[in-house]
Specification:
Layout (H helix, E strand, L loop, with lengths): L1 H19 L5 H32 L4 H37 L4 H16 L4 H24 L11 H18 L6 H12 L7 H6 L8
Helix pairs in contact: 2-3, 3-4
Protein name: PXMP4 protein
Length: 214
């Protein structure tokens, strides 16, 4: 009986592998694998980030913290999987309808995916969009130089960019704090506000804040 079950499993695996080799199903299978990769990558990225941020800055019981980590990881993983699925599906559909792949297909498919999957304004989506926005600005700057729209700088502009970014974000933190994303506010509060307060050596060097009622 056990041998029969093993043969059936091997036959099933052979059939699955044969299906995966069929070129006519490649586009559809690529969409499914994109969904898989989006889910896995989203979990890999979000789980350690949520773990660190939750235990550093969030209060509550261990159960509440673990639930928060699991929820953030699930949301990031799900959204990225849905987006990759939508994007690759629309790319395949457009290519099939027009008979070829053109640059606008990518822009259009990603716009639709972004609207449907990341259109809700929540902390997870907000972090992802801000992460992408910073990369887009750098990418467009480099593209403008490559295409000749902007002259090649004689010196590396990165020091100036670094100065302006840090100058702007600290000005916002000091005088318009509510405009910054909550996790950034928490990080900066820890670095710049909490470092102004101590009572003795324990909360000067060992702890950030005292937990007793001295």
């Amino acid at each position: 009986m056990a041998g029969g079950g093993g043969d059936a499993l091997r036959s099933l695996l052979r059939a699955a592998n044969a299906l995966l080799q069929q070129r006519r199903y490649h586009a559809a299978l690529a969409v499914l694998k994109g969904f898989r990769n989006g889910a896995v990558y989203g979990a890999k990225i979000r789980a350690p980030h949520a773990l660190v941020m939750t235990f550093l800055f969030k209060s509550g019981s261990l159960r509440e913290k673990l639930k928060s980590i699991a929820q953030a990881t699930y949301t990031h993983s799900r959204n990225l999987a849905y987006f990759v699925f939508t994007y690759k599906g629309l790319m395949a559909l457009q290519s099939r309808l027009q008979g070829k792949k053109i640059p606008f297909h990518s822009f259009f498919a990603a716009c639709i995916g972004g609207w449907l999957v990341f259109g809700e304004n929540n902390p997870i989506n907000s972090q992802i969009i801000m992460y992408l926005l910073s990369r887009i600005l750098f990418g467009l700057s480099r593209l403008a130089v490559e295409k000749g729209y902007v002259p090649q700088p004689k010196q590396d502009p990165f020091p100036l960019v670094a100065a302006l970014v840090w100058g702007t974000v600290l000005w916002l933190f000091e005088y318009h704090r509510q405009t910054l994303q909550p996790s950034l506010q928490s990080s900066m509060t820890y670095l710049y506000d909490d470092s102004n307060v101590w009572h003795d050596i324990s909360d000067f060097l060992i702890y950030n804040k005292r937990t007793d009622s001295k």
